[in-house]
Every structure is written in C-alpha cells, then in structure tokens.
Amino acid sequence: MSEKSKDKLPRLLRGMKDILPQDQSQWDHLRQKVKAFATSYGFSRIDTPVLEQTSLFVRSVGKGTDIVEKEMFSFVDQGNEQVTLRPEATASIARAFIEHGFVNQPKPVKLFWMGPLFRHDRPQAGRQRQFWQFDFESLGEAHPVVDAELILVAYTIVRELGLEPVVQINSIGDAQDRERYKKALVEYFRPRRNQLSDEIKKRLQRNPLRVLDAKEEEVRILVQDAPQIVDFLSEEANKHFVKVLEHLDELDIPYVLNPRLVRGLDYYNRTVFEIWPTGDDTGQLALGGGGRYDGLVESLGGQPTPAAGFAIGIERLLMKMREANVPIPQPETPRIFIAQLGEASRKKCLKLFEDLRRAGVSAVHSLAKDGIKQQMEIANRIKVKYTMILGQKEMIDGTVLLRDMDNGIQETISFEKVIPEVQKRLERSVLKANRTNVPYA
Ligand code: AMP
Question: How far away, in angstroms, is 305 Cα from ligand 1 center?
Fold first, then answer.
C-alpha cells in the first residue's frame, strides 16, 4: 500500500480513546464501586440518550460558555434537526425529570447517571474529546443539607477509592447577587484593561465570572485583589452558604474556601464546589465538581425545582488512582486450557469447552491449532492452573489427561468424570489460595 493511501486509512479520532481489554477490569471495578455507592446513598440510576437537541445545552449551559461556544459536537441530522452529542449530563437529567413527571415523586428525587460525554476540547493529559462521567443529582429541595449530602457523597467516593481529595467550595449567590458582582468585577478590571489579553477582554464582556478561573498567570495575579463574590451575597444566599459549611464541619470534611471558583456554566447558583486531588493547586485536573442549579428545571419549561448535583470524570479518577498506586484488581486469568490432537479430538474438545462453560468453568483453547507443543506453549503463556489434553490415545481410551501446570504431574481421568473432577480441583486450589491470603490464619 502506498504511503499516500495509508494516510487516508480510517484512524481513531483525535482526543478519543479505545478502552482495551487489559484495562476493562479497572473500569469494571470503578463502575461497580460507583454503582454500589449510588445504591447505598439512595440514588436511582437514570440513563439518557447520547444525542439531544442542541437547544437543550444552549439554553441550560449558556451561550457564553466554552462548552456551547467551542466544544459541542453538533450537526444537522437527516430530519433537519439540530442535534448535539451530549457534552454534559445535568441538562439531560433535568429534561428527563420534566418529561417523565418526576415532579410528582417524593422529594428530593435522587438520581445517578453514568456514561460517555463529548467535548471538542484541546486534547492533553486528562483531557479527551470523549470521556466518561458519573453524576449524582438531587432534585426538589432547596435546603443546604442537600448540598452538604452531595459533597459528602463526592468526597467519600473519591476517598474510598483510595485518593486523598480536597473539597474546594464557594458560593456564587443568586442571579441578582451575581449581577451586582459582575458590575464590580468589570469596574475593577477597567483601569487594568491594558494588562489583559484579547481573550480575557472578550470574557470580561460576555461572561465576567469566567475571568476568575482564567489560567493565565498575569490574570490570576490581578484576580487575587479583585472583589470577591462572597461580599455580594444576599442575606439568604449567605445564610445558605454558612449552613452548608456548618454541615461540612460536622462531617469533618476538609474544605478550602475558594473565592475564584465559579464553574463555567450558566445554570449554577449559590453553592459551587470541586473535588481536587491533593497536590493540585490550580484545579486544572479537578476530579469533579458540581453545585446548586435552582433555576435549571424551570428554565427548561418545568415547575420551579431547586436542585443540586455533581459529576466526576472516570478517566481522571483512574489516572490519579494509577499515579497514587492504588491497588486495582487485575483481570482474572483463565484456569483451564483445553489441548487437542486430531480432527475427532477437536470436535470433542469444542463440545467439552461448552460443557465446562455450562458447568460454570470458563476454559480457554486454541482449537484452530494443530501441534500439541504449540498449544502447550500458549497454555504456559496464559499461566493456567490445569491443561486438559485429549490426544489420540485418550480418544481411544475415553479419557482425558489432566496436567497440573505448576508441577507437571499428569493424571488420566475418564471422560465422563472429568468435569466434576476439574471443578473439585479448582475449588480446592481457590480454598488454598484464600487460606494463604489470610495473614494470621
Ligand atoms: P465539568 O463537567 O467540566 O465540571 O467536569 C467534571 C469532571 O469531568 C472534571 O473534573 C473531569 O474529571 C471530567 N472532565 C471534564 N472534561 C473532561 C475532558 N475533556 N476529558 C476528561 N475528563 C473531563
């Protein structure tokens, strides 16, 4: 094939990743744990479609945000509908809440969601264009105890997965508070405009709060002396924030009051928080974040429904778990290999393979191979405990040769008895392994 035509071969899209077989046990481990957390905290699972109407995200996340301005995978479908691959989950959950009449259920309605999201971000370590999140949302109650419960859940999940998280927290007040604050912020930057890049000037005009979480060092320095939103909170919003913090104190959850934390999306109000890994003091690789979004459901056409939630990124979590050497279960290796010699044996072995599976023993084989030596090499490579050999002699005798791969000892077992014998032996070796794993037994 010429170099030129090779260039045209289909490739993985930039910023997308395959999740390979060897990584699946880590993913499964994490997903299982998160599901168990959801159940134990009383959150019910909801799945939403990958594709939604574009207007859902424009209305909720907001026009001036990075997500809507630059990052959505949007297209017009065959039915001439403007659609978008979901860039976040909360908007879809709010839409589903309205469309399925969740409003009539006892409050709060506690929902758990897990799935892939799509953002046309600049790919880098910990930043992909397709990534996974799990979300916990609590809809229907305005009380600060809801915010505290969600922070407890987010913090505990990350901690019990073996990491040392730090909760960063702020209040961005209600809409009126933010309007007053935005004015003060624009006033503060006016005499300092010549120190700002065009990008930051644009942000200041469109979405001034976003200047607070700018990554540029010169802006960060200016932000240090900028007015802080906590000084602009109404009495109600302030009381709410204090109550959330009191709950966190009672729960002994360590937190950092971070006046620069605003979270980019339009739907947030009052409490906003992020979960940062220890040692990250910029939040560039935050594990997750969330906050209150009291106006979202109503803005999408539902009844007024105060709500709050958070999302945590799975790839980031796995990345940090690997970096911190958190033990993650390895895939179970198969324990039985079936080796055959000759056409008749091959037929019998495929049947044996299926009979073993039905008996609850998952075996491996290389039935397409001919040479016994080659097959034994494979069995050695995958480190099975036993190999069942069905050669020409065994076919005539109606037996199977069972080879213990640890010590090379081979036994002849009659074909009829081989499945229960193998089951017995495997059980025994599991018991032995368990015994040796108990430190003081
Ligand atoms: P956000 O919805 O932007 O608040 O993100 C919540 C969490 O999702 C982040 O803290 C990350 O763990 C994860 N996340 C967000 N964007 C990406 C991305 N582009 N690639 C990988 N993970 C991401």
Answer: 25
**Residues 266-299: tens digit of each pLDDT:** 899 999 999 999 888 888 899 999 999 999 999 9
What number does CATH give the domain 336-431?
3.40.50.800
pTM: 0.90
Give pLDDT tens digits for 198-237. 989 988 988 899 898 888 888 889 999 999 999 999 999 9
Kindly report the number of other CB atoms within 10 A of residue 4's CB atom: 7
Probe ligand 1: pick from 90, 316, 320, max atoms within 8 Å of CB?
Answer: 316
168 CB within 6 A, ligand 1: no
Q: What is the pLDDT of residue 439?
A: 37
Cis-peptide, bond into residue 108, ω within 30° of zero: yes
Nearest-Å Rg of the Cα atoms of the chain is: 29
Q: What is the CATH number of domain 12-174+234-323?
A: 3.30.930.10
Ligand 1, residue 126: give the atom nearest the CA.
21
* Residue 116 in tokens: 């892939």
Q: List the chain domain ranges.
A: 12-174+234-323, 336-431
Q: Are 109 and 286 in contact (CB under 8 A)?
A: no
Between CA 274 and CA 168 the distance in angstroms is 5
Tokens of 209: 């709060």
Q: Is 155 exposed, middle or buried (0-12, 13-18, 19+ CB in 10 A)?
A: buried
Q: How many CB atoms lie within 10 A of CB 159?
A: 13
Residue 176 alpha carbon to ligand 1 centre in Å: 28
**How far is ligand 1, taken at its centre, from the CA of residue 256, in Å?**
20
Q: Which range, of 6-10, 280-284, 393-397, 431-435, averages the lowest pLDDT? A: 431-435
